[in-house]
Specification:
This protein is about 80% helix and about 0% strand. The chain is mainly alpha-helical.
Length: about 450
């Protein structure tokens, strides 16, 4: 067989995936920093506002399932580029929508179209699970916790940065100018990923017509350890047949779905409960999002050393404390501290969950990542309307009491993490055998 030159290294594969995810994931903050203006201009109730800020999460969560499984057959480049392109089209449509409005009634009467465009813009959020599969195929199991934590942690910074910048841009450029800048960002980011994104060795070889058997052999020689099991359907079906996949879905819904929900909802909370201006609410939301993102890197480091189950137990316990304090706080300082506790718990648990995905479903990482990332992230769409319902039901105190939802989810997650730890797969036997094999 003639010599085949492969493109990229694991670090380059990680860098490209992180860049693509950062660009697409910014859509989490699409409407949150603008929530107060949208509510005023369109006369929205708290529940309707909850659906508006959550609209991007619908496509951002559900599309993770098929697009993540697609990684198992094609690698990550094609799914990444498709999702980023769809998000760009959605942002262009949103700009046309804003331009068609009159000065007297900027966005009034266009609520269903606003939701639809938000869903289209949210396609970029689904890049998360695509990148999880792409990075997992690049790195060996022993290094995946840190690699995936770095990927997700740095990519997760996007909502925090945008939550901080958007209110400032809104004040200086207006709604149309702000989204024009976002469209340019999306176009440049998509182009950058097209130039820098790299598939793992096995997929590069398959794209060049190398047989499956030879591709696996050559890829192993280049350090690749994980390989797909079959078609998109095969990966989804195989992963769906594992009960641990569904336990991980539940764990991830509590913290990553919660992260998405709070990134969209916290501007509403800070402006409605404490009556802060949009820039201040944006800074406080950015503090949450950035803390949770950086905590994910730390969580990956901990998961490599303690294992995913123990790390999840610590993280979910932190989330219980933070959400209880947030629910009953009437003090800004206590609420700010509780917000940081929730961010730490969510970020660390998110890393722990995806440390366990390749461990439990190594032959269908893409399929498992799709179920966990897709259905887990669906919490980002489901939770804001529920929080809005509680706020509408309880009045001003409802903006605080709605955080009890996260207490309940975290307690359920604690129970599931204990079950996983007690199961045969949950102890340290796997790590012990890996170390023995490395010594041998």
């Amino acid at each position: 067989m003639p010599l085949i030159r492969l493109n990229g290294t694991p670090k380059q594969g990680l860098a490209g995936a992180t860049l693509g995810f950062f660009v697409g994931f910014a859509a989490v903050a699409l409407f949150g920093p603008m929530a107060k203006k949208l509510q005023t201009d369109m006369g929205l109730s708290p529940v309707a506002l909850g659906f508006a800020v959550a609209a991007p999460m619908l496509s951002g969560s559900l599309l993770r399932i098929p697009f993540s499984a697609w990684v198992d057959t094609s690698g990550g480049r094609k799914p990444f580029l498709m999702l980023l392109s769809l998000s760009t089209v959605g942002m262009g449509g949103l700009l046309l929508f804003l331009r068609s409005a009159t000065a007297a009634e900027p966005v009034r009467g266009g609520y269903p179209l606003l939701l639809a465009l938000g869903v289209l813009c949210g396609c970029g959020i689904a890049t998360f699970s695509v990148g999880i599969g792409q990075v997992s195929y690049w790195f060996p199991q022993a290094e995946q916790g840190f690699a995936l934590g770095t990927y997700a942690g740095l990519g997760n910074l996007a909502p925090g940065i945008f939550s901080f910048l958007l209110p400032i841009a809104l004040a200086d450029w207006g709604l149309g100018g702000t989204y024009w800048a976002w469209l340019i960002f999306l176009c440049l980011g998509t182009l950058a990923y097209a130039l820098l994104g790299r598939d793992a060795p096995y997929f590069q070889l398959r794209h060049r017509g190398v047989s499956d058997r030879d591709a696996r052999r050559i890829a192993r020689d280049h350090g690749q350890q994980l390989f797909p099991s079959g078609s998109v359907r095969d990966g989804l079906v195989l992963a769906a047949g594992r009960w641990r996949t569904w336990a991980l879905v539940s764990l991830y819904l509590a913290t990553f779905g919660g992260f998405l929900a709070l990134t969209a909802w916290l501007p509403v909370y800070w402006s409605s409960y404490f009556h802060f201006t949009p820039p201040i609410a944006g800074i406080l939301t950015a503090l949450f999002a950035i803390t949770a993102s950086l905590a994910r890197v730390v969580g990956g480091f901990c998961a490599d050393r303690l294992n995913g189950e123990r790390t999840a137990l610590m993280a979910l316990g932190t989330l219980v404390i933070g959400s209880l304090l947030m629910s009953y706080s009437a003090s800004f300082h206590l609420s700010a501290g509780a917000e940081l506790l929730m961010a730490l718990g969510m970020g660390v648990n998110n890393a722990a969950v995806f440390k366990m995905v390749p461990k439990y479903v190594p032959e269908a990482v893409g399929g498992a990542s799709g179920w966990v990332g897709g259905l887990g992230a669906a919490g980002g769409f489901v939770l804001p309307p529920l929080m809005g319902f509680i706020a509408e039901l309880r009045g001003s105190t409802g903006y605080a009491r709605c955080f009890l939802l996260f207490t309940v989810l975290a307690l359920i997650g604690l129970g599931l993490a204990f079950v996983l730890k007690a199961s045969p797969f949950g102890d340290s036997n796997i790590e012990i055998e890996e170390k023995k094999a490395q010594v041998a």
